[in-house]
Amino acid sequence: MKKKTFNIAELICAVISLAVFFGIWHLGTRGELGKLMPGPLPVIEKFLQTLFGGKIGSSTLIVHVAYSLARVMIGYFIGAAVGIVLGLSMGWSPLIEAIFAPLFRIIRPIPPIAWIPISIIWIGLGEDAKIFLIFLASFCYVTQNAWSGAKNVNPEYMNAARMLGAGKSRILFTVVLPASIPPIFAGLQVALSSCWATVLAAEMVRSSEGLGWIIIAGMNNNDMNQIMTGILAIGLVGMMLSTIFRKVEARLCRWNRSEN
Amino acid sequence: MRTKSKKRIYMAVSCLSVLTVLLIWYLLIDVMKITKSSVFPGLVKTFDTFLSKLVETKPDGATLGQHLLESLKVCLLGYSIGAILGIPLGIAMAWNKWCDWLVRPVFDLIRPVPGLAWTPMFILIFGIGIEAKAMVIFVNSFVACILNAYTGIRQTDDLHLWVGDVFGATEWQKLIKIAIPTATPMIFTGLRTALGGSWMALVAAEMLAASKGLGYMIQQARYISRPDLVIVGMLTIGVVGLILDTILHKIEIMVAKGMNAQ
């Protein structure tokens, strides 16, 4: 089913559907609705204008993007590192699993966004609180996947390695770790998009820069154009993040491609 | 025998670990009082708050049960509309190439935006009532349901469809008897992802604009420095999310029996 050939009919359909979408949006906002919602042209105009030149709030759009991305990246990588280590050791050692599993099961169902108020009370309004939230978002998904990945390694592989005289640490690094990489990557991918949503929520609740701030400030100023510009940027960055991630994964897990 | 006793030891370790954490909490905060209770509440106080919040409306105007009911109402409303519209659309997109080609470009435009990013826009359009929040949750569950229904149908084995062809099944029969059963586990995965996402988006939306609901409750509790109430709210959110997911999983096992559901 996966044929990648150039298809004229498909292209025409894409053009038609996008044209209809933007057409309805453009025409719909010309009348009464236009007072409430800007059409596509002003939004794109504002987007291009503020990308490098004009300012939203205190800085240009690209700086806001950089703020949000920096927050995501710091929290994401710390959370991923801690999550992989904890998840693998939980899957590897029943004792560690017995200690941490119940605590993890209590924390995991609480959405990271629900931590916002308590993180503000504990850590304050600064960067640390936001990084903590993103850490939580990535930590939970990665731990869960690393844990189940390490637990579901085919026991025959481990027995075979043991029979061939591999020590415990040898089995961990040459059998369990490679076998858990695909689920870990799946966790990392979910974690990335969850982190992206979390940073927006955190910025919407309290911040003075970043994409979440753009849309919430737009709401407070009743500036729909600014909200739409923010949403456009959010969508573009989210799309970029997942594309880059998929490329990296295809690179690092090349041996796993045949299975999917 | 050995594995059984080992299991029992691990059980004991698990209980011990939870108890240790609770004990440390109790000792540090309740007994030694290393921080003020407006920063980190004691164990006893948090438990007390939970019990009194069940019946008392102070300080935010509703009991825990009323907040919970309000949140559930909004969440399930948006979620079920999203699922009812999303699953058939996803199936149609996977089954019919014209539908796919026409809908996909617009869908790809909307998909990368996290559901809760729409919150400010919907609040401006619909006000802070139930509609704005229901719309945010609708978008959330709609996207997840389409994606998973689509992937599920696409996973249908060509061989099974050929068998259908051989036995003279019509397109419609192939869809109903072969493709949809194949996709059912995947559709349920989508439903569960969507429910988790909806619950999370709802909390975010309620923190921004609401006058009732669990997200509103924890946000208000933060303003008046009542971390005990915040923790009660967080745990309630977590537990309810878990219960919703468990219910859906039970339904999945019932419906998708023998359709390689785990």
Quick gist of this model?
By secondary structure, chain A is an all-alpha fold.
Q: Can you characterise this structure?
A:
The complex is a heterodimer of chains A (260) and B (262). Chain A has 10 helices and no strands. Chain A is an all-alpha fold. Chain A has a single domain (43-252), classed as Orthogonal Bundle (MetI-like fold), CATH 1.10.3720. In chain A, helix 3 (61-92) packs parallel to helix 6 (127-151), helix 5 (116-123) crosses helix 6 and helix 9 packs antiparallel against helix 10 (224-252). The radius of gyration of chain A is 23 Å and the shape is globular. The two termini of chain A are 13 Å apart. In chain A, 39% of the residues are buried. With 262 residues, chain B is mostly helical. Chain B has helices at residues 2-31, 43-53, 64-95, 97-110, 119-126, 130-154, 158-166, 171-208, 214-223, 227-255. Chain B has 10 helices and no strands.
